Amino acid sequence: MSVKIKGLKKALADLDKKFINSVYPAVRDTLERTATDIEVEATRNAPSSYQIGDASINLSFIKQKINKKVYNNGFWWNIGLDVPNTGEQWEAWMEFGTGLSAKDILSNPTYSEEVRTLARTYFRNGKGRIVGKPYLMPAFFRNADNLVTDMVDEINKALK
Question: pTM to 2 decimals?
């Protein structure tokens, strides 16, 4: 015995069309807005200089390197900056600190093991004295904190 529902194929096609035309854009827009907010805040908070004794090191290049990249038709965003593999790595040193500063910053319970692992890739000898001034991770935490709630709200609006 089987039951045939008239109009099921059309109803499913209509649902699929509504989902693609309203929900997908709502999700992509929310992700893009969040990525942009992270990028703007990280750029605003990135250090412009660092004082070592009487010398001031110009770090304005950090602000210029922060960017966002989009993948997967707007469903995946990467906000960050490229850090050299060798030599001076001020971008990472300012974000994570060195020596005791790095230990203090990375003990923050909001930092995931993934972030700690990333920070460890810049570890040299543990004796550094550069005091970190995190700019990227705090921007991420502040702006992504309500991402799921914002996305659910936007999806609900799109489905009305």
Answer: 0.84
